[in-house]
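In response to the reviewer comment on reproducibility (Comment 2.3), we provide here a single inverse folding case reported in full, input and output, so that an independent group could reproduce the run without further information from us. The structure tokens appear first.
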């Protein structure tokens, strides 16, 4: 019974995030989405997000491997950064192959903190990569697959990251998985 209730709670959480994404999309289109950057520890944001998403990842037959660089302090809105990580993790779960692994890694250089979410899913064809962050874009492969999606999550990820003076990059190889890397300025 406990597992059943936990599964229901996981689905409720996912629906709340999806509804939140659509509400945020509306605010983005109106130019009214609020972002409040502050100094925050990247590792703490990742740990909070993993607590929320960890059970969902496990239920999908995936393993989460987290490597955190401590004391990486970035200038970002903590709630928006959690939203970015949720969307990236959600995609990694949707497109990750059952029994595979999802990797989350953080690190820093002299100017930026980095957050990477990597999966071993089917990967993305090079021809699709330039369009991934466009609103409602879904690759031809995902349209014909069993994976459901709206094409909103990566658009919101890019908007939120760039609104915080950061960037998001993707690298992928068909059959070997994808890696999404977010960079944000270090807090001074």
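Designed residues, in position order:
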């Amino acid at each position: 019974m406990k597992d059943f209730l936990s599964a229901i709670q996981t689905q409720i959480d996912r629906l709340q995030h999806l509804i939140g994404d659509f509400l945020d999309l509306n605010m983005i289109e109106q130019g009214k989405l609020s972002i409040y950057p502050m100094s925050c520890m990247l590792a703490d944001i990742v740990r909070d997000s993993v607590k929320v998403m960890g059970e969902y990842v496990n239920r999908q037959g995936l393993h989460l491997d987290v490597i955190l660089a401590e004391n990486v302090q970035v200038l970002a809105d903590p709630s928006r950064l959690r939203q970015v990580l949720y969307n990236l993790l959600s995609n990694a779960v949707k497109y990750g192959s059952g029994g595979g692994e999802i990797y989350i890694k953080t690190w820093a250089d002299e100017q930026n903190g980095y957050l990477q979410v990597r999966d071993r899913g089917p990967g993305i064809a090079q021809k699709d990569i330039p369009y991934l962050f466009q609103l409602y874009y879904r690759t031809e492969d995902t349209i014909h697959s069993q994976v459901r999606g709206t094409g909103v999550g990566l658009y919101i990820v890019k908007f939120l990251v760039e609104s915080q003076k950061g960037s998001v990059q993707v690298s992928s190889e068909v059959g070997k998985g994808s890696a999404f890397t977010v960079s944000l300025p270090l807090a001074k």
